[in-house]
Amino acid sequence: MCGIALVLGAGAGHERELFGTMLASISPRGEVDEVLCADDALLGTARLRIVDRQLAVQPWTSEDGRWALCFNGEVFNHAELRAQLHAEGRRTRSESDTEVVLETVLAWGEDALLRMRGEFAFALVERNSRRVFLARDPVGVKPLYWAAAGGRLHVASEVKALVSLGVAVHEVPPGHCGWAAPDTTPALHPYIDLYRLGEGQPELPDVDGAAEVLRATLTDAVRIRVDTDLRVGVVLSGGLDSSLTLLLVRELHPDCVAFTVGAEGSEDLAYARRLTTDLGVQHVVVPVRPRELGLHEVREAMRVSELTEYGDIINAVVSQRLFAAVHHAGVKVVLTGDGSDELFGGYTMYRRIGDADRRRLFLHKIAHLSRTELQRVDRTSMGHRVEARVPFLDVTMLDLAMRIPQELKYRDGYEKWIVRHAFADLLPDYVATRHKNPMSHSSGLHERIRLFRPLFPRLYRSLGYQCAAPLQRDFSEVLREHGYDLDAAVTAARTPRDLTLGEHARDLAGALRWNLASLVRRPVHTTST
């Protein structure tokens, strides 16, 4: 996976300094910066070398030199697509998924996107006309932004690369693609509609049938994500989703290691240590004392993550510590359990909303993952040159989850019941019966970071990210404020609101009580396993 930056349009060559700044801002996403420069086009990639590490140099150009591709992500079924290209008489020069992206789009057009099983965002430039085809994976695991300034089009993987332009920055929405030119607004449209997932397909009300399909689909989603000669890490909280991910990775890849972050005495460390001991899997613990997290760490998490909701920012502080340790361990590929809560009812809001709106809430959460949970995972992992893969959000899983009725997602007092049932023989009892606990809470670090929440608005403004989106209250809070009326909450969220001074004051009072109490607690000194 990589970071990309482009400047397209007449006189682009005069923006070398700006282009250098753009590329520098995304350089942490890769190991090497690769560029292709002309008078009217500046193309750059910060490449994290994973697939065909020697030959997949970017920007990748077509054999005739007409096209150039800047690609971020991975297409996991690239070998299958390459074979189809060869069967049609098209030749390739590498074993990379980068080349497959370029050649399949040239061969099949927009239909190529629906054949890709991957996590990707890319810009394919026609060098003569300076037109560019922009595309992003169905759920938005990988980011892509654009801005127009000075008669030129600027494209980048992160908002921070475009802030200095002083203009509005726009997101390429998940599941969208389209053509753009330096002097026109990109004409983007959905090639897959996230609000219609599973539509027109039969539900799977039979327990055993749904469990069988779920087990096969998730196992395959993990399988294609561990098809690498590199060591594979797993982000392990000890909860259902990450534990299941580790169990499957251990079965499907010969060399894996688990990483867990948290305060000593936290739930996550206890569950994760027990599981890795039982499995005999190497376990890297990232112990963090709450008092170690200060304003610097919070601001850095905001700078890296570019997040707009408070809960996600708090989780990003924890993720920063985790992925720094992954990088230090020399691991470039990790799998996470993210997305399962959104697909299989892991949040209490799914049980509080009316039956008629429940499916729409599932679809709403999925459609907005690109700017919440997935944005946190992408920025904090890639900011440390780590590629985080999310098997629960494979396109096959998205479709399947919408065919499984709610009564199989929450049953017998358990959220994500069908996932527990489908893997009952694989999951230890202590994992199968553990309930959902949000990341920052279960790591024991939430209340410490919460101490700085009243400063979030000032920190956010100082970073200039309001050029893309304002800081705003979590959607879960908006939904609760409107009595779990989904239509009212969605309407309200269209005009984002920040927390009020009163809400910040109550927040601070609660956080101060916890942090003052923690000062008198006796510190525990331990070593990692």
TrEMBL record:
Keywords: Amino-acid biosynthesis, Asparagine biosynthesis, ATP-binding, Glutamine amidotransferase, Nucleotide-binding. Pathway: Amino-acid biosynthesis; L-asparagine biosynthesis; L-asparagine from L-aspartate (L-Gln route): step 1/1. It is an enzyme of class 6 (ligase). CDD domains: Asn_synthase_B_C, AsnB. Residues 2-183 form the Glutamine amidotransferase type-2 domain. Pfam families: Asn_synthase (PF00733), GATase_7 (PF13537). Its EC number is 6.3.5.4. It comes from the Bacteria. SUPFAM superfamilies: Adenine nucleotide alpha hydrolases-like, N-terminal nucleophile aminohydrolases (Ntn hydrolases). It catalyses: L-aspartate + L-glutamine + ATP + H2O = L-asparagine + L-glutamate + AMP + diphosphate + H(+). Belongs to the asparagine synthetase family. PANTHER family: ASPARAGINE SYNTHETASE (PTHR43284:SF1), ASPARAGINE SYNTHETASE (GLUTAMINE-HYDROLYZING) (PTHR43284). This is asparagine synthase (glutamine-hydrolyzing). It comes from Geodermatophilus maliterrae.
